[in-house]
Amino acid sequence: MRELLMEIQGISKTYGSDSNKVQAVDNVSFDIERGSWTAIVGPSGHGKSTLLQIMGGLDRSSAGTIILDDKNLSQLNNRQLAQLRANKIGFVFQFFNLLPHLTALENVVLPLWLNKKWLNEKRLNGKKDLQKCLALLERVGLADKANNLPSTLSGGQQQRVAIARALVNEPDILLMDEPTGNLDSVSEADVLALFKELNDQGSTLVLITHSSAVASCAEREIELIDGRLCKEVSA
Amino acid sequence: MNIWILVWRNLLRRKGRFIFTLAGVGIGMAAFVALLTIGQGLNHQIQQQAQGLGANLVVTPKGWCAYEQISVLTGEQLPEAIPMKEVIKIQALPGIKAIPFLNERTAFRNRPVPVIGIPEVEMWALHQWSLASGHYFKDPNDKSVVIGSGIAQQFDLKPGDQFRVRGHQLPIIGILNETGTKDDVAAFLTLSVTQSIYDVKDMVSFVTVQVEDLSHLEAVSLKIQEIANVAVVSDKQLVSSILAIVGSVGSAMQAVAAVGILAAAFGIINTLLTAVYERRREIGILQALGGQHSTIFATFILESGIYGLLGGIIGIFLGTLVTFWFGPALMENPFTASLQQNPIPSLDMMTLIYTVLLSILLAIVAGLYPAYRAAKLSPVEAMRYA
Ligand SMILES: Nc1ncnc2c1ncn2[C@@H]1O[C@H](COP(=O)(O)OP(=O)(O)OP(=O)(O)O)[C@@H](O)[C@H]1O
Ligand SMILES: [Mg+2]
After folding, report:
1. Cystine design at B49: which of B73, B316, B365, B367 (Cβ 3.0–4.6 Å)?
2. Interface of chain B against chain A, CB under 8 Å?
């Protein structure tokens, strides 16, 4: 039995008011264990991204609770949620979402800057921060691209930089919304291999995907239809 | 490496927009600097002229207007309105030195030149004159001329040259050292010679009074008005009434500067709002990565503050250039027009520091609304824009 990391209990999310109400997520419950790898699948527009954003503290649920590390996310204020995102959660997005005017290395170090009281703490850890980020870039196979701007990298390379960025604060859980959705098959295999490696080393992964190949790599699949948890398949 | 890199890179992303916004701030602040330095230069000049008067009180005919009072400082022609017998009454008062002036005017080589009749001995002592060349009046009826250094330079005159006053050929006997006051641009004759040349026996234009004990200033002023049929103003009143006239010109310039600065502030707001709109997705990313609202807010305030800092510095350079190139023309007004040389704009360190601080403050205030807009974006909403 592995340690329980996140409990999702009866999560619902509705958008809009009375007349044009959308029930994006409807009473979803499941658990995530530390070190597990979960794939969320389902047709387009059926609430996958909404659920992931709520799990990561980017959005708030209309009902239900999420417990991460003994904290009930719906009871945290905005400041505490930002802190939680900084310390416990790593996000990876479909469109890589690197800041275009920062180099690969600067993109990776960015969460560390954001996490600091940016006016008084600057030089002391600067060197250590950079070394740590370089090591991460090396881990995703991009040590030689550290000073490249995102526009000079391929899609697969950009996504690997984004993964390195998500890892820099040593999060408890990686939440990824279609991380391979914009990659060709070669890059997809590349990134998938990286996920396997991370998962083998103990990282907890949750990813949304439309690709059955990607989904089959995960140890379990959760399907969302009309915002409801439809079936749970464990490998 | 820290958040400053992010701010700086953001700033330089749209180079054209950066440069134009900065130019707006720079020009606005330049107008401000030009206004301040020109105003200070003018002020300085007026104070200097007032000091050159060497007196605490000025006795004038009753009912003089401010323009006539200005002429006391500039050496312009004035009506001969105070009879000598009043002057003698005033001079008899204890604890004061009263010196009568007769301000006339002549034309020399088609240029107007103030001709000032003075009691030569008292004037020499009071204004602490010294001679650059030649010698001084020998007695009250010496039919000769002593000229200021500015006049000597303007017309290239030396002792021994002739100076024509109202048809009378008079020899120039001495040239004064530079004083920095209107004495530099006047020709001096003894009072009685002036009175006879201009045919105004026993009349003077005004009288300056130096009071030995300043605590008696008010009493002396009242006493003079009691014994003689004249008006009395203090040098301070004189300066303030001149500043009131110059000030009305100044407030027009202030309005121009205010509009310039305001336009610059709106330029910053506009640029930053556009940036917030363009970067809303990135703002969402920053939030997803754990950035606090306050951090997002700060990045925009810093960006805005940099506009202020750089704009202020540019404004100082631009403003200083404008002041020294166009300042003299910009300073044309009733006071400066009557000065032979235009006032030199004055520039000091405090003005410069003040300008940069004001510029930064202004930019930060302008940045508040865009920064607020950025900070209140919700992370999900910000990221929805692919
Ligand atoms: N801010 C919003 N306001 C209103 N409706 C929304 C909002 N965000 C999402 N929705 C709706 O909620 C539903 C779920 O959207 P969501 O993005 O979670 O779907 P998804 O499963 O991620 O789809 P896809 O696979 O296309 O990314 C959709 O019907 C969508 O239109
Ligand atoms: Mg989605």
Report:
1. B73
2. 1-3, 5-6, 9-10, 12-13, 281-282, 285-293, 295, 298, 378-380, 383, 386
Distance from CA of B4 to the nearest CA of A (A): 9
Question: In ligand 1, which atom is closest to the CA atom of B381?
Answer: 1
User: How many Å apart are CA A164 and CA A110, to the nearest integer?
Assistant: 11
Both structure tokens of B197: 């040349």
Among B289, B380, B383, whose Cβ lies nearest the Cβ of A114? B289
How high is the pLDDT of residue B272?
93
| Predicted confidence (pLDDT) per residue in B217-274, tens digit | 888 888 888 888 888 888 888 778 777 776 666 677 778 888 888 988 999 999 999 9
What single-letter DSSP state applies at residue B229?
A: S
Give 3-state DSSP helix, strand, coil % of chain A, rounded to 5: 40, 25, 35
Tens of pLDDT, residue by residue over B58-112, are 888 887 776 777 777 777 777 878 898 888 888 888 888 889 999 888 888 888 8
Angle B267-B272-B275 from CA coordinates, rounded to 5°: 130
- Each domain of chain B, given as residue ranges in start order, spans 3-48+245-383, 62-229
Going by C-alpha positions, the residue among B65, B87, B54 that lies closest to residue B230 is B87
Mean pLDDT on B37-55: 74
Q: Degrees (nearest 5) of the Cα angle B79, B80, B84?
A: 160
Distance CA A171, CA A63 (A): 26
CB contact under 8 A, A118 and B295: yes
Domains of chain A: 4-234 (3.40.50.300)
Helices (H), chain B: 3-11, 15-52, 66-74, 84-91, 120-126, 149-155, 191-197, 217-227, 235-278, 280-288, 293-330, 334-337, 349-375, 379-384
Average pLDDT value for residue range B203-218: 87
A21 neighbors A14 (Cβ within 8 angstroms)? yes
The CA-to-CA distance between both ends of chain A, in Å, stands at 16
Q: Which residue of A has its CA nearest to B6?
A: A102
Radius of gyration for chain B, computed over Cα atoms and rounded to the nearest angstrom = 30
A51, two tokens? 């659920």
Closest CA to B299 of B381, B383, B377, B354: B377
